[in-house]
Design goal:
Layout (H helix, E strand, L loop, with lengths): L5 E5 L11 E6 L4 H14 L3 E4 L5 E3 L4 E7 L6 E5 L3 E7 L4 H10 L4 H5 L6 H7 L16 E7 L5 E5 L4 E3 L2 E3 L5 E10 L6 H15 L19 H7 L6 E2 L2 E3 L7 E3 L5 H19 L8 E3 L4
Parallel strand pairs: 2-5, 3-5, 4-16
Antiparallel strand pairs: 1-2, 6-7, 7-12, 8-9, 8-12, 10-11, 13-14, 14-15
The chain binds flavin-adenine dinucleotide (FAD).
The site of flavin-adenine dinucleotide (FAD) has 31 residues, from β3, α4 and β12.
Length: about 300
Amino acid sequence: MSLNVLQNHNLAEYTSWLIGGNADYFCLPSNYDELREALKFAKEKNLKTTILGGGSNVLISDGGIEGLTIGLKKFSGISTDISSDKITLDCLAGTSKSELLKTFLKHQLAPALFLAGLPGDVGGGVVMNAGVAEMFQPREFMELVESIEVMTAEGEVRTLNKSDLKVAYRHTDGWQPHTVVKAKIVWPLQKDPDVLNKVREANKVRLSKQPLDKPSCGSVFKNPEGHKVAQLIDSCGLKGYTVGGAQVSPKHANFIVNLGTATAQDVWSIITHVKATVKEKTGVDIQTEVIRMGRWG
Ligand SMILES: Cc1cc2nc3c(=O)[nH]c(=O)nc-3n(C[C@H](O)[C@H](O)[C@H](O)COP(=O)(O)OP(=O)(O)OC[C@H]3O[C@@H](n4cnc5c(N)ncnc54)[C@H](O)[C@@H]3O)c2cc1C
């Protein structure tokens, strides 16, 4: 076996919150054959598999993750094809959105503005249908995607067209239970010479509104129909609410930041308290956007 599989490997550094216990087994495949090997390893040992993209939307338990965790950050690369009227980008799932942003910037295309400040990988972008509140075009990741490739647990690669998928707010269905390995992204070649300035401006706005100096997973809760969740949380006086090393950001009420020593349990206690308080004081049920992973009691 050429793939290096580590045992009891800590996962905190693979998450934007810098929180999480150990994976029983962990590997970082960099190509299709290595990913196939990883999936085979899990099947032979009867291990549950967990896929980790950029780790920017997950809360990994302090007790770690059972089975094999497959990190995709080395499974990256973009191949570009340009015709007279469109650009086609074949992106491996572990390609960071910032790499994709650079490609769109190079060609002065509008998706650069959408991608500005969006962390994580292409695979995570597909699965979470990452999106922005601003009325940009595009404003959701799946608007960029024409088709995806998935790998089954047996190592077979299948192509799914967008029409095979069910795309919703911060969620895409129809690819499960497989691993997303590639996305084909297509966009018209309509240049916007001012896009770099717009990206710089968007970054400034994010920096002024979000606590980007502290580890977080971005927005913790989804916006409920007809409401802005940050305003609901703020109206309950929860900014600054702290448990252990985790805190509802005083700058943005929908961010929970790691002050340096936060555990997953600290963050989960805050999430539970915020949910209950918002329900009690405003009557609105709020749901988490962030995905809990691993062993929870
Ligand atoms: C500072 C900050 C700002 C943010 N701003 C935004 C924002 O404006 N809009 C927004 O939508 N999100 C935002 N996010 C959240 C996050 O960046 C997005 O949801 C992102 O798309 C998640 O991608 P990821 O690669 O990090 O996924 P991960 O967090 O690694 O994974 C998320 C889920 O997808 C699954 N997954 C990941 N890759 C694959 C794959 N290849 N195959 C199968 N399953 C997979 C994982 O198992 C997990 O269930 C922000 C996060 C941070 C830290």
